[in-house]
Design brief:
By secondary structure, the protein is of the alpha+beta class. The protein is built from ten helices and six strands, in the order ααββββαααααααββα. Helices cover 63% and strands 10% of the residues. It has a four-stranded antiparallel β-sheet. A two-stranded antiparallel sheet has the order 5-6. Strand 1 and strand 2 form a beta hairpin.
Length: 393
């Protein structure tokens, strides 16, 4: 009783004072934790007729509550317990409401309804029942729509996901694991809506009985019958919507099945999708490796181009340096830019000394460079062959 904010002694006193059937406790103990899937079909309306001609009606009404503050869980399931003792003799009505939390929307509406009635007494036996239904039934529509949007996203991924392409990231495959989660939410949802539908049908039956016994006039009975017909049709429509969504979830399962076999177990489906996820990640790894190889090939090509440039510069330098060295030794005595007779430029007759010294020195330098380079290449080739032989052994 602690979740309801009352003590066990107070609840027993309430039951004993008004001679309430002990089955009411079965509904009261349903509070304290979030509504369980195993209790999804529990709490439909029951009616007991007392010896004094009164009617005791009690039921749990589960409803969806907007929880948009949490993006991952936009809707949460709550419930309200209703007990109503109706005495046609006019001795009054007994109403007991057990709310999911303090100052709930329903509690505020009940207080406003009682305040608006003359002397705080509802005019019709069905007034509070209509208030409960009108407050919460419509929430199921938006809850079902929210689930439908989640399923549509999953269907789109299942239809477009190509496991042969490595660029499909793991989020797409992980998204395909949600049918289990969505299926777990849809199955109890159908049972809860069906329990609400049973309650509406019971109220319709009571309306027929009360009208037949002249407890209500034609106008009130017809009005209540119209309201119940609307809610019954609405709930039946919700059930059809849930059936459609269940079919879509099943379709998602079929899309990710083996071609010749159907996956009949959620556990097997999860394992199968994990295998697909591993394959996709392996393909992704191969793609990354190929990209690395391409980058290395490009880098090698650029390095080769750079080496060719270095070789050209080296050759030019090797040709230039010997001549430059010889010219430095001989100085500028081989050239005369202004002779004694006014000549503009003259070359010494001993210029052949520069040629004889520079050309052999240049050839010697180039030959030495070529010899050292070839020797290093042979040494590298020998080391490479030795490594290959070691790997072969």
């Amino acid at each position: 009783m602690r979740p309801l904010g009352i003590t066990e002694q107070a609840m027993r006193k309430l039951i004993n004072t008004y001679a309430i059937d002990p089955t009411f406790l079965d509904l009261a103990i349903s509070f304290g934790d979030k509504p369980q899937s195993s209790d999804a079909g529990h709490g439909a309306m029951t009616v007991r007729q007392g010896e004094d001609g009164s009617y005791d009606m009690q039921y749990l009404f589960a409803y969806a509550e907007d929880n948009s503050a949490q993006v991952n869980v936009p809707w949460t399931i709550r419930q309200i317990c209703v007990f109503h003792r109706y005495n046609p003799t006019g001795s009054g009505n007994l109403w007991i409401f057990l709310h999911a939390r303090p100052r709930s929307v329903m509690q505020q509406l009940i207080e406003a309804e009682i305040t608006s009635q003359h002397a705080g007494i509802p005019k019709h036996w069905f007034s509070m029942h209509l208030l409960v239904l009108s407050t919460y039934i419509g929430n199921w529509r938006w809850c079902i729509r929210s689930l439908g949007e989640e399923i549509e996203k999953t269907v789109d991924i299942a239809l477009t996901l190509d496991l042969a392409r490595a660029d499909n990231n793991k989020d797409g495959l992980i998204r395909l694991l949600t049918p289990q989660y969505l299926g777990d939410k849809l199955l109890p949802l159908s049972s809860r809506v069906h329990a609400a539908l049973i309650t509406v049908r019971k109220l319709e039956e009571l309306n027929t009985v009360f009208h037949a016994k002249n407890y209500t006039n034609d106008g009130d009975s017809q009005r209540f019958a119209s309201e119940m017909a609307y809610y019954r049709t609405t709930l039946e429509g919700y059930l059809k919507s849930v059936e459609v969504l269940e079919g879509k979830v099943k379709g998602i399962s079929d899309l990710v099945c083996f071609p010749s076999h159907r996956i009949r177990s959620w556990t097997f489906l999860t394992s199968f999708l994990h295998i697909k996820l591993a394959v996709a990640l392996n393909l992704k790894g191969q793609t990354v490796a190929n990209e690395i190889n391409n980058k290395m090939l490009k880098l090698t090509s650029e390095t080769f181009d750079d080496n060719a440039t270095v070789r050209v510069v080296t050759l030019v330098t090797l040709i230039y340096l010997p001549a430059s060295f010889v010219s430095t030794l001989l100085g500028m005595n081989l050239f005369d830019f202004e002779g004694p007779n006014g000549e503009v430029f003259r070359i010494s007759r001993q210029f052949w000394i520069f040629v004889v010294a520079a050309v052999p020195l240049t050839l010697l330098t180039l030959g030495s460079w070529y010899y050292v380079t070839q020797r290093r290449l042979r040494f590298q080739k020998k080391k490479l062959n030795e490594k290959k032989e070691l790997h072969m052994v």
